[in-house]
Amino acid sequence: MAETAQQIADDLRARIDSGEFAPGDRLPGEPALVRQYGVAKMTANGALKILVAEGIAQARTGSGTYVREFKPIVRDAVKRLARSQWALGSSIWSADVEDRPRDVADLDVSEIEAPKWVARALGLNEGATVICRSRLYLVEGEPVQSAISYLSADLVRDTQIAQPDTGPGGTFKRLEEIGSAPERFEEDLRARMPSAEEAERLQVPAGTPVVEIYRTAFTGDGRPIEVNRMLLDAGSYVMRYRFES
Amino acid sequence: MAETAQQIADDLRARIDSGEFAPGDRLPGEPALVRQYGVAKMTANGALKILVAEGIAQARTGSGTYVREFKPIVRDAVKRLARSQWALGSSIWSADVEDRPRDVADLDVSEIEAPKWVARALGLNEGATVICRSRLYLVEGEPVQSAISYLSADLVRDTQIAQPDTGPGGTFKRLEEIGSAPERFEEDLRARMPSAEEAERLQVPAGTPVVEIYRTAFTGDGRPIEVNRMLLDAGSYVMRYRFES
User: Fold this and answer.
1) Does B186 contact chain A (CB < 8 Å)?
2) How many CB atoms lie under 10 A from the CB of residue A93?
3) Residue A192 is nearest to which of B184, B234, B239, comparing CB atoms?
4) Alpha-carbon torsion B32, B27, A192, B231, what sign?
5) Cβ–Cβ contacts within 10 Å for residue A152, how many?
6) Strand-pair category, A142-152 with A224-233
7) What residues contact residue B226 under an 8 Å CB cut-off, 6+ apart?
8) CB-based contact B245 A189, cutoff 8 Å
9) Is the pLDDT of residue A190 over 90?
10) Interchain proximity B196–A240, CB inside 8 Å
């Protein structure tokens, strides 16, 4: 009895899990699947499409379908935002990918009227302005995350936070210098499919979701001091959180 | 000039964002889009498919395409796993959805040989057995999460943890009673598309990713005491983490 695309996908997935096909390996193509499983070309194609949709495999135009390489960035939230990280002048971003070539692109700093959700999150009046820092993070030349942070313009307009280069230790170190060090963080995460625009900006392969993180930083006396909206290529990241009972 | 499916999807998305179409509203169908935008039926259908793939809309067979209702479960990791939650006899699950009808289904408890990753995570020898607790969590009758927890069988075989009903305060309270209270947690999150089997079990709509969480619980002296692999319907959840700098 000929198998269905789903059955062939299940079989290929089991062979990937068993290690028969390793990350980066080329999977059998349509002709090989047709021969091996005795199915129509369309069924073979459907099986490969299922694996691509699950994010297990990646299609490369004109070359075939490959087992996806998952060499995740471990985004350790507690470690990366620890005072010891930024107080001594390191960047938060450097904590994520210590050992891989990394870059920041499309840096844009502007003063804008706070979007409603930003004003609400920062406890600002409607119409207040914010310094808005937008950038794209790259690892090994590939975009993996976009981020936009917002801070009250009245508070940071005259600091290096309003300049493209925030200096050693970045925004958090500068906030500390003006008596508004972040002491507490809250991160809200959602996973969803990207819009076409987001998929293009992050260059995520088809069938890959994104993780949207809203982070609020609070001072010791509970003032929200920064909000940051991050969009991560889910295929590139493991998010790690550590906490106590 | 006739518009493309992408342009129509962009326009519909903007109308949803503006509030013209609210969550749960029916979007214009193919015939309405054909009339309104002067495009072919296939283009109109393509636009709706884009919104479904993005998770913004949901197709209901024979009825049309609707703006997706997102009434998320806020999974506050720190709050739900706080000792004050389980020490007094509450369930962790009840912290997530205090005010909505919730249920647990397909509860299964068994003793099995530890899968390799479980043995590694719990620091057990190869071939050691574990008590394995598997269940499905429902909110308002809909499955939102599956979870399987693993604990050393030698440690918990003779406790209520090996019984279907773990009693008030659940597994963690029982661990405390045998001198192995969990004091520290680590959660690793990934987002990806579900396999066909996972999509069926969680009944996730097409185009909805899942969030996979591996949680390890440690005792005060650093022993890993429980690992739990959770699979969440990403469309139902916001994951919240709070921590200090």
Assistant:
1) yes
2) 17
3) B234
4) negative
5) 22
6) antiparallel
7) B122, B149, B150, B151, B171, B175, B182, B215, B216, B217
8) no
9) yes
10) no
Interface of A with B in 16-75 (CB under 8 A): 50, 53-55, 72, 74
CB atoms within 10 A of CB A197: 11
User: With an 8 Å Cβ cutoff, are B193 and A211 in contact?
Assistant: no
Query: In B, which residues are within 8 Å of A194 by CB distance?
Result: 54
pLDDT < 70 stretches in chain B = 1-2, 70
* Ranges of each domain in chain B: 5-67, 73-240
- Yes or no, beta carbons of A245 and B183 under 8 Å apart: yes
Sheet with B182-192, strands from edge to edge, namely A73-76, A237-244, B182-192, B210-219, B224-233, B142-152, B129-139, B102-113
Smallest CA–CA separation between A154 and chain B, in Å?
24
**Is A85:A95 a contact under the CB 8 Å cutoff?**
yes
pLDDT given at position B70: 67
Interface test with B, best of A8, A204, A221, A244 (most B CBs within 10 A): A244
CATH code for residues B5-67: 1.10.10.10
Quick one: tokens of A214?
């809203």
Q: What is the pLDDT of residues B160-179, one digit of tens each?
A: 999 999 999 999 999 999 99
Cα A28 to Cα A15, A31, A49, A61: the distances in Å are: 11, 8, 13, 15
**In chain A, % of residues over pLDDT 70:** 99
Ramachandran region, residue B187 (left: φ > 0; alpha: ψ -120 to 50; beta: rest): beta
DSSP SS3 for B161: helix
Q: What residues does A58 pair with on adjacent strands?
A: A66
Q: Which residues of B touch A182 (CB under 8 A)?
A: 245
Nearest to A131 by CA among A113, A147, A146: A113
Tell me if residue B105 falls in helix, strand or coil: strand
- What tokens were used for A99? 């050992």
End-to-end CA distance of chain A: 54
CATH number for A73-240 (one of 3.30.230.70, 2.40.50.140, 3.30.450.40, 3.40.1410.10): it is 3.40.1410.10
Give the whole-angstrom CA distance, residue A74 versus residue A24. Answer: 20
B243 and chain A in contact, CB less than 8 A: yes
Report the Cα B148 to chain-centroid distance in Å.
Answer: 12
B238: number of Cβ within 10 Å: 17
Task: For residue A161, give the amino acid letter.
Answer: I
pLDDT tens digit string along B3-50? 889 899 999 988 988 888 988 899 999 999 999 999 999 999 999 988
d(CA B190, CA A6): 24
Residue with tokens 């929200």: A224
Do B193 and A55 make contact, defined as CB atoms within 8 angstroms? yes
